């Protein structure tokens, strides 16, 4: 080998190593559901004033939404999400359309959505394929006649027994 002919190979190798490293980072970022971006984040930012107005409406309504999650009893079953919805005075809110979207904070790209079934006396229920214990974010929308109510909550949930 001629003296000095090694340097072009070192430079080409360094560039190739950089390209391969960049591709690995892109692959990991794109394939791992731990990395997530808020859905429609740009539209949500554009409509920030609408969200603030909804927050004021929620305060004026004064509705109270309490949730419980019961773990699956046997393997293969899904946990049950139950919501108790009441007006500020404690009267149950019946015949509402209650929907939820939820995700585990460690898997924010895996969003579960469901419409809850009316049980009666302000109680709504559904099952969801929640597969891991930990911090969950739950976002509810409630439509009752002309009224629209939203509620978001982050809570540590135990959805699987024995873990």
CATH architectural category of the largest domain: Sandwich
State mean pLDDT (0 to 100 scale): 92
**Oligomer description:** single chain
What shape does the CA trace take?
Answer: elongated
Instruction: Give the C-alpha Rg.
Output: 24 Å
Euclidean distance between termini CA atoms: 62 Å
Q: Percent helix among the residues? A: 25-40%
Quantity of strands, as a count? 8
| Number of helical segments with 4 or more residues | 3
How much strand? 25-35%
Spatial order of the strands forming the largest sheet: 1-2-6-5
Here the CATH topology of the largest domain equals: Immunoglobulin-like
- How does the helix and strand content classify structurally? alpha+beta
Run of helices and strands = HHHEEEEEEEE
- Total domains: 2
Biggest β-sheet: count, sense, barrel? 4 strands, antiparallel
CATH class of the largest domain: Mainly Beta
């Amino acid at each position: 080998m001629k003296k000095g002919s090694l340097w072009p190979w070192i430079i080409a190798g360094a560039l190739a190593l950089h390209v391969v490293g960049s591709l690995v980072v892109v692959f990991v970022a794109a394939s791992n559901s731990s990395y997530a971006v808020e859905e429609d984040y740009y539209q949500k930012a554009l409509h920030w004033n609408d969200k603030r107005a909804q927050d004021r409406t929620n305060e004026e309504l004064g509705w109270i939404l309490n949730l419980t999650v019961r773990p699956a009893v046997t393997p293969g079953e899904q946990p049950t999400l139950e919501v108790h919805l009441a007006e500020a005075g404690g009267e149950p809110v019946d015949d509402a359309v209650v929907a939820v979207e939820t995700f585990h904070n460690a898997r924010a790209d895996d969003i579960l959505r469901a419409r809850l079934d009316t049980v009666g006396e302000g109680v709504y229920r559904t099952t969801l394929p929640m597969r891991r214990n930990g911090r969950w974010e739950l976002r509810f929308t409630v439509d009752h006649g002309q009224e629209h109510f939203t509620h978001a909550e982050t809570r540590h949930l135990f959805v699987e027994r024995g873990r």
